[in-house]
Design goal:
This protein is mainly alpha-helical. The protein has one domain: Four Helix Bundle (Hemerythrin (Met), subunit A). Helix content is 63%, strand content 5%. It is built from 9 helices and 2 strands. It has a two-stranded antiparallel sheet with strand order 1-2. A hairpin with a 3-residue loop joins β1 and β2. The chain is elongated and about 60 Å long.
Length: 175
């Protein structure tokens, strides 16, 4: 495993525990809170993350590393997890995400990705040619961005209740 792959995997392996710590015990109102019109709630973000474990990251990695000549990524349905996990309890979605991520981390290690493999390419429907290195960096960045999104949403859920302390929170300044 390359240093880059190892670093990405380190981020990816920690995400489930971070998410569990953020949402476990949060109220239904906090988990369904939309900070703005059109923004995803923390629960929707978790559904999206779980869906991406099935339809996005590993299929694309397998495509790049595989021998099939067609290296065109299928477009991603960003809201597909909302349908797949409709009616699921947040604890069940989180447990499913943990299971899927663990499986994907095992598979990622099994690939034994080399420096040369990181330069292999595929065709993204919007961005054209992308490398495996870029895809892996995107996966880690995607996790961190959604952790930030959930945290921001939870901050803004509680924001109206902090009273005069609001002035100390930059996340509440423009909200």
């Amino acid at each position: 495993m390359t240093p880059m792959t190892s670093e990405v995997q380190h981020v990816l392996e920690r995400t489930p525990a971070i998410l569990r710590a953020l949402v476990e015990g949060a109220s239904g109102a906090a988990l369904e809170f939309h900070e703005t019109d059109g923004a995803w709630s923390p629960k929707q973000v978790l559904c999206h993350l779980a869906e991406a474990e099935i339809t996005d990251w590993m299929p694309r990695i397998e495509m790049i590393l595989g021998s099939n000549q067609d290296k065109r990524f299928a477009p991603l349905d960003r809201e597909g997890g909302f349908v797949r996990y409709a009616g699921w309890d947040i604890a069940d979605v989180l447990t499913e995400f943990e299971r899927l991520r663990h499986s994907n981390m095992t598979r990622l290690q099994q690939f034994g990705i080399t420096e040369a493999a990181l330069e292999r390419t595929a065709v993204h429907p919007e961005f054209s040619t992308v490398t495996l290195s870029q895809l892996l960096a995107c996966w880690a960045t995607h996790d961190l961005a959604h952790i930030n999104q959930i945290t921001r949403s939870l901050v803004r859920h509680w924001g109206p209740s902090v009273g005069p302390w609001r002035k100390y929170y930059r996340l509440l300044a423009d909200y």
